[in-house]
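hey so u asked for the seq, here:
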Amino acid sequence: MQYHEDLLLLSKRVLEQDGAKPSQASLRRSVSTVYYALFHSLAKAGADLLVGETNGSRSTHAWRQVYRGLEHGLARTACGRWEIMREFPLPIRDFGEFFVAMQQTRNIADYDPYKTFTKSSAEAYINRAKEVMKGFDEAPEKDRRAFCVHVLFKPRKEESRKI
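ran it, C-alpha cells below
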C-alpha cells in the first residue's frame, strides 16, 4: 500500500474512532488528512513519472528531490490556471480542481475554529479523493507527466528579443 492510500485509510479511521458522532477535532483531522493524501499522491506521481517507479531504475536521491519538490502554493496556483488546465484530460482536470478545493477546505479545518464539519461531509471528501486519484492514475501517462511538470515547476516568461 502507498503512503497516500494509508492517509485516506487514516482519515476514515479517525472518523470511526468516536463512533456515530465524531468530535469536531476528529472531523477536522479527517478532512485535513484527505488533502494530504492528495498532496502525497501527486508528489509520488511526479517522482515516479519524472525519475522512475522502481528502485532499480532510479536514483533514490533524485526521486526524493522531486517528491519533496512539490510546493503547496505553487501546485494550487498551477491547478488554478484554467488556460493550461483545460488542455488536460478530464480526470486530470478533476484532480486539479479537487486538489485546490481540498487545500482550501484543509485551511478552514485547521485554522477556522467557527467552522463545523459533519461526518457525511468528511466521508464525501474521502470518497471523492478516491475517485479523483483513481481517475488520475488511469489517465494517459504522457498527460500525467505533463501535469506533474506543470505543478512542480514555476512557469517562466518567454524572453523577448529586440532585433
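The mean pLDDT is 93. The two ends are 56 Å apart (CA to CA).
lmk if thats what u needed
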